[in-house]
Design a protein that fits this description.
The chain is of the alpha/beta class. Helix 22 links the parallel strand 12 and strand 13. The strands form three sheets. Strands 10-11-9-12-13-6-14 form a seven-stranded parallel β-sheet. Strands 1-5-4-2-3 form a five-stranded parallel β-sheet. The chain is globular and about 65 Å long. It has four domains: about 30 residues, no CATH class; about 240 residues, 3-Layer(aba) Sandwich (Rossmann fold), CATH 3.40.50; about 200 residues, Rossmann fold; about 55 residues, no CATH class. The protein has 25 helices and 14 strands.
């Protein structure tokens, strides 16, 4: 049937990808599952290996790389990663949080004798990286790479950086920052690697994926080229993703189909088994170094706490759920906005634009953004500003005049987001928790962190991991008091193992972010017998976000092999049945 169908579709200039998945033919194809392909055969033929601890390898590399007065030693996984990079010219390293990626990123240039290495990092880790580099150069011999932040590389002014500097080694730490193929920074890396496939690429992250094979397949290709154990053709990659990914819409998931070739004899080819079979094929490939071991030698506990909230918050939830409006009467147009406001209300406040924008301003902005998204998909430009410049210069056609309409009205309104507080109960709860013994209060919303700092006098560490006086969060434990920390500013790259008590005010609704956050204090070097994360859950959206994070963690552990802290932890949160029993309560509907 497939051959005949493909011929019929080809006459119409279409492929099976164009079929509606819920149509009759689409459903048949999804039941049949992933098709066999030359790409699957190529991947099956790739040699396999299981890297093992090799003390002699670490010793030999230390002799080569360590300074005469250096005393640090390489971990086995660091030695294995450096060897693979040396032998293959590329490295894909999904190594757990706290697993030793920093030193690998510094020594990479030395083992391949790169002349123009660059190190890509998040901007918030720039100062920390420079401090760590200076400290490690006391123990190790390595050239100083040019440090570039992902944020800077995505700007218009950096559009020609690669062509000008011509790096011969790209080291991408926290490489999940490159997962979005539509982002300017990713498009620039992709263009450079496509034109210069011999450039060596080393990619590392403790959270390599959120929910999809599409998050990292292109990164594996940059690292390993034709030896990449992932499909190199987009249509085949999309089929595999539709079979393996987490959180697919109803009717979208493909059956494993030909992917059962990855399974061991006797394995049941269900979703979990197929993910694990793919993980074995990925992590047993040369050039891929992944951690599988469980974590540090201490327990991890996650416990839900329901905060008390007043009648004003319940009334706001009633308005939100029944009228789809914020407490001040502003209409909500989509479920994402509803979700966001519910999570704010569960913290005792909500954000609003003050004043509200005119309707015509919003409509012009909406149409222009839609045009920009479409243009980025089909043209070699990377950002909204470049699209605007292209339209203004006549290089990009805009027959409907979206840019001129938006340009004419853009500056007539300036957005000003302000918090509106309904209840301080959550702040008071967090302060009582912080008073019991030293710990970190993790906050998602800047408004919450600032208000708590103002009311309690506790230091709030946010931008660049600093407080208002410029003190670094890594040094805060010396004062023996609890602190407030921005999740966005501190969930990556911070070594906070001096703490073992944590309170998450608003849980992150994805496994990638939660893995990073839990890894700040539950990591190597932690001296306590147990690490505790108390999690506030004041509404169904916060609970559902935590459950989605756990589902993401199962996907990541099955498909990549990285042991996930959310699955390792002893978790005490409401069950789905317990939440269902509260469905008549306005905050739990």
């Amino acid at each position: 049937m497939a051959g005949i169908l493909n011929k019929m579709l080809a006459r119409a200039g279409k492929t099976v990808e164009d079929l509606n998945p819920i149509s009759r033919v689409g459903k048949i194809l999804r039941r049949n599952g992933v098709r066999d392909s030359n790409e699957l055969d190529r991947i099956l033929r790739l040699p396999r290996r299981k890297w093992e601890d090799a003390p002699s390898l670490a010793s030999d590399l230390q002799t080569w790389l360590r300074t005469h007065w250096g005393t640090m030693e390489l971990r086995p996984i660091q030695a294995a990663a450096l060897q693979e990079l040396h032998d293959l010219g590329g490295l894909f390293a999904p190594i757990r949080v706290g697993g030793g990626k920093t030193l690998i990123s510094f020594l990479a240039a030395a083992v391949v004798e790169a002349e123009r290495p660059i190190l890509l990092i998040p901007a918030k880790l720039r100062d920390k990286t420079r401090r760590e580099m200076a400290a490690l150069q006391e123990h190790w011999n390595f050239p100083t790479p040019k440090i570039i932040t992902y944020e800077w590389l995505g700007r218009v002014g950096a559009a020609e950086f690669f062509e000008t500097y011509q790096p011969d080694l790209i080291i991408a730490d926290e490489c999940h920052k490159l997962k979005n193929m539509e982002a300017a920074v990713t498009r620039r890396v992709n263009r450079y690697m496509s034109k210069n496939p011999k450039v060596r690429f080393a990619a590392m992250s403790g959270t390599i994926t959120m929910r999809s094979l599409r998050d990292y397949a292109h990164i594996v290709e940059w690292c390993l080229g034709s030896f990449a154990p992932v499909p190199l053709k987009w249509t085949i990659l999309s089929e595999w993703a539709d079979a393996l990914d987490e959180k697919l819409a109803d009717g979208q998931r493909l059956a494993p189909g030909a992917l059962i070739k990855l399974c061991e004899p006797g394995e049941t080819p269900d979703l979990s088994a197929t993910r694990k079979a793919f993980r074995r094929r990925l992590t047993e490939s040369y050039g891929v170094i992944a951690t599988h071991e469980k974590y540090v030698g201490c327990s991890l506990y996650i416990t839900a706490i329901e905060p008390p909230l007043n009648e004003a918050v319940d009334e706001a939830f009633t308005t939100l759920r029944t009228l789809w409006e914020t407490p001040d009467g502003w209409p909500i147009s989509d479920g994402i906005t509803m979700w966001r406001h519910a999570r704010e209300l569960a913290c005792g406040f909500y954000y609003k634009w003050d004043p509200r924008p005119p309707r015509e301003w919003l409509e012009a902005r909406k149409q222009w953004c839609k045009f920009v998204r479409t243009t980025l998909k089909h043209r070699p430009v990377d950002s909204e500003l470049q699209v605007a410049q292209g339209v203004a210069a006549g290089r990009i056609p805009d027959p409907a005049g979206f840019y001129e309409t938006w340009k004419a009205i853009r500056d007539t309104f300036k957005t000003n987001t302000v918090p509106v507080w309904l209840d301080d109960s959550v702040i008071e709860l967090a302060d009582r928790w912080a008073s019991e013994s030293p710990g970190i209060v993790w906050v998602e919303h800047q408004a919450f962190g600032q208000r708590m700092a103002e009311q309690t006098g506790r230091h709030y560490y946010h931008r660049q991991g600093k407080n208002a006086a410029g003190g670094m969060i890594e040094d805060a434990h010396k004062f023996g008091v609890s602190i407030i920390a921005s999740i966005a500013s501190n969930k990556e790259g911070r070594n906070l193992q001096e703490w073992n008590r944590n309170l998450i005010v608003s849980v992150l609704p994805n496994g990638e972010g939660m893995e990073q956050l839990l890894g700040r204090t539950h990591r190597d070097g932690q001296q306590a017998d147990e690490v505790v994360y108390d999690v506030l859950m004041g509404c169904k959206e916060q609970w559902a976000g935590f459950e989605q994070a756990r589902a993401d963690a199962r996907y990541i552990e099955d498909s990549i092999g990285q042991a996930q802290k959310l699955l390792y932890a002893d978790v005490d949160v409401p069950t789905p049945d317990e939440v269902a029993e509260r469905s008549l309560e306005i905050r739990w509907r």
